[in-house]
């Protein structure tokens, strides 16, 4: 139940921030969030990270669905049982769903967080969830999977 609440909260936060951005900033407009560090800068991303695969909307939806389906399967079937692995999977599912909703509904993903101190792609809450979940998944797999969740063959 805790992981369902985490997924719903992450998805709701993603959609709320995107809604706020669309209703308060024109396309290409920015406003400081943490001056000198991060600004809110409204862009529409028709691709994936760094606008890769731009214009391949349905391919990106399909790939996202496969990844979300795999993560959800691991969680539902309780193949991943350790809390770190479950948190990682939950964040990946929630973030993936957040971006799929945009792609299907709008044809693009609304991005808004822009680092001002380095050149980096503009991103959103869903992206933060996917990246954080992926990092946690790598940590889980490298240091926890074998001890807690690996099935031992007899």
Task: Describe this structure as you would to a colleague.
This protein has 154 residues and is of the alpha+beta class. Helix 1 (2-24) packs parallel to helix 3, helix 2 (57-76) packs antiparallel against helix 3 and helix 3 runs antiparallel to helix 4. Strands 1-2-3 form a 3-stranded antiparallel beta sheet. It has helices at 2-24, 57-76, 83-106, 125-143, 145-148; strands at 30-34, 38-45, 109-115. It contains 5 helices and 3 strands. A hairpin with a 3-residue loop joins strand 1 and strand 2 (38-45). The protein has one domain.
Q: What is the count of structural domains?
A: 1
Q: Calculate Rg over CA atoms.
A: 17 Å
Instruction: Look at the structure and give the mean pLDDT.
Output: 93
Number of helices: 5
**Unreliable spans:** none
Task: Please describe the biggest sheet, giving its number of strands, its sense, and whether it closes into a barrel.
Answer: 3 strands, antiparallel
**End-to-end Cα distance:** 33 Å
Strand fraction equals: 5-15%
Q: If strands are numbered along the chain, what order do they take across the biggest sheet? A: 1-2-3
Shape: elongated
Order of helices and strands: HEEHHEHH
Structural class: alpha+beta
Please estimate the helix content.
55-70%
What's the total number of strands? Answer: 3
Descriptive keywords:
alpha+beta; elongated; 154 residues; 5 helices; 3 strands; three-stranded antiparallel beta sheet
Indicate the topology.
Blueprint: H1 2-24, E1 30-34, E2 38-45, H2 57-76, H3 83-106, E3 109-115, H4 125-143, H5 145-148
Antiparallel strand pairs: 1-2, 2-3
Helix pairs in contact: 1-3, 2-3, 3-4
């Amino acid at each position: 139940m805790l992981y369902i609440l985490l997924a719903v909260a992450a998805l709701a936060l993603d959609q709320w921030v995107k809604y706020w951005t669309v209703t308060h900033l024109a396309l290409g407009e920015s406003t400081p969030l943490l001056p000198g560090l991060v600004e809110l800068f409204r862009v529409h991303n028709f691709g994936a990270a760094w606008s890769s695969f731009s214009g391949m909307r349905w391919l990106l939806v399909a790939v996202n669905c496969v990844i979300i389906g795999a993560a959800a399967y691991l969680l539902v079937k309780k193949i991943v049982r350790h809390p770190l692995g479950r948190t990682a999977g939950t964040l990946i599912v929630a973030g993936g769903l957040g971006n799929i909703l945009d792609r299907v509904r709008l044809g693009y993903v609304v991005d808004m967080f822009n680092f001002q101190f380095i050149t980096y792609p503009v991103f959103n809450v869903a992206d933060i969830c996917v990246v954080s979940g992926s990092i946690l998944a790598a940590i889980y797999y490298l240091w926890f999977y074998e001890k807690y969740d690996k099935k031992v063959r007899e």
